[in-house]
Design a protein that fits this description.
Elements: E1 6-17, E2 28-29, H1 36-46, E3 52-61, E4 66-75, H2 88-91, E5 92-113, H3 116-122, H4 136-149, E6 157-158, E7 160-164, E8 166-169, E9 183-193, E10 201-210, E11 213-215
Parallel strand pairs: 2-5
Antiparallel strand pairs: 1-5, 1-8, 3-5, 3-11, 4-5, 6-7, 9-10, 10-11
């Protein structure tokens, strides 16, 4: 049976955001715009099941891109499971961060239903089974109900967990322009490829903002580089 993905829209905003560039090893520097992987995490915070997959398709930037820079203290090491304590003063590091402020996006994503036969094949090594009579309708309804009520499994965030996000479900959205700006954002992190779970690899794409709109290519397109 052929299933058609249904596209949904959320408006997301927050006071601070940091979509960290992976090439910055020490200091935290954000991309200019939310990444597809960070946008996907917002949808998953509201609703996720093994039977579905979220595919980000379009991001509209609704507020001008603004920056803020400050320094903050961080702990430079992880506590060992065998250790009884960690003395923060000996592991404190002061790092600079270049963050986005006052962000507001309209994000579109398709809810992709994974057919039972395909999931049974993927899960055969995990000793799990999938009901053959499942269909995407119930998952669409579950997401719509949760999103309209503002429910989420965990608090959505904007790149880093300390930067919480507020979201609003947009029913019957009309696609339009965002801010009146064109900008070549260069190569942006698309998502992580977990084909090999022991060695996940990053995927990138050339991100171009046109009149405040970032069109996100499909994961299997030639525009996504692994």
């Amino acid at each position: 049976m052929e299933y058609h993905n249904k596209e949904y829209c959320l408006e997301v905003e927050g006071k601070l955001a940091c979509f960290t560039r992976p090439e910055m090893k020490i200091e935290r520097v954000s991309y200019d715009v939310i990444t597809p992987s960070a946008a996907r995490a917002i949808f998953e915070a509201i609703f996720w099941k093994p039977a579905i997959r979220w595919n980000i398709t379009r991001i509209e930037v609704l507020k001008p891109i603004k920056w803020i820079s400050f320094k903050r203290n961080e702990v430079g090491s992880l506590m060992s499971p065998r250790a009884s304590d960690l003395f923060i003063e000996d592991n404190r590091q002061q790092k600079s961060s270049l963050l986005l402020k006052d962000v507001h996006y309209r994000i579109y994503a398709e809810l992709e239903f994974i057919p039972p036969r395909k999931r049974n094949t993927e899960e055969k090594d995990k000793n799990t089974s999938v009901q053959a009579d499942e269909n995407p309708g119930k998952y669409n309804a579950m997401f719509e109900r949760r999103a309209k009520k503002g429910q989420c499994f965990n608090q959505p965030y904007l790149g880093c967990r300390e930067f919480s996000a507020n979201f609003t479900y947009i029913d019957n959205p009309i696609k339009g322009n965002g801010i009146q700006e064109d900008r070549d954002l260069g190569y942006m992190l698309y998502d992580m490829d977990f084909t090999n779970e022991k060695n996940p690899k990053p995927m990138f794409f050339r991100a171009i903002l046109k009149q405040g709109v970032l069109e996100v290519p499909a994961i299997n397109s030639e525009e996504v580089r692994r």
